[in-house]
Design a protein that fits this description.
Blueprint (H helix, E strand, L loop, with lengths): L2 E4 L5 E4 L5 H14 L6 H12 L5 E7 L5 E12 L4 E11 L8 H16 L4 E2 L7 H10 L19
Parallel strand pairs: 5-6
Antiparallel strand pairs: 1-2, 2-3, 3-4, 4-5
Protein name: GNAT family N-acetyltransferase
InterPro entries: Acyl_CoA_acyltransferase, Bact_Acetyltransf, GNAT_dom
Keywords: Acyltransferase, Transferase
């Protein structure tokens, strides 16, 4: 297993491996519950296939404790940046087991995402979070700069109101 990054005397970060399936699923299910998403075995299995198989430009990272237990996960994907003619790395999901918070796992995952982006020649690591997710935002503010952009979601096939 290739190590992507570490925190001195803290968790190790590496790419997700097939043997991580059960632990990754437990973490991803908890991530989805945190955001009040419905329990959806199909979505979880599909996402697992994408990250472990590195499909759709996806890469899965996991933070691992000294005992080998998975402490957290980060699901990332490549994206094109037409306005700059460059590529970036989008952090779709970041989650640390509540029992492992303050272990350095979140910081280790963010640093590893930055290292991976640098290795790939990407110009940014980008993500969104809920405005009221103050605990995560405190972590994010130590690693990145919040932007003034507003995010919109549009349902496919939607007709604009006139």
């Amino acid at each position: 297993m290739t190590t992507v990054g570490t925190v001195p005397s803290g968790p190790t970060v590496r790419r997700v491996a097939a043997g991580d399936h059960a632990a990754w699923t437990r973490l991803f299910r908890a991530y989805r519950a945190f955001y009040e998403l419905p329990d959806d075995d199909h979505a979880i299995a599909t996402t697992w296939g994408w990250v472990v198989g590195e499909q759709h430009g996806m890469t899965g990272l996991v933070a691992v404790g000294a005992d080998g237990a998975l402490l957290g996960l980060a699901n990332l994907r490549a994206f094109a940046r037409p306005s700059t003619g460059t590529t970036g790395l989008y952090l779709d999901d970041l989650f640390v087991d509540p029992d492992a918070r303050r272990s350095g796992a979140g910081s280790a995952l963010l640093r590893a995402a930055g290292d991976l982006a640098a290795q790939r020649g990407d110009t940014v690591v980008r993500w969104i979070t809920a405005q009221d997710n103050t605990r995560a935002r405190a972590l994010y503010d130590r690693h990145a700069t919040a932007t003034p952009w507003v995010t919109y979601d549009m349902a496919p096939g939607r007709v604009a109101r006139t």
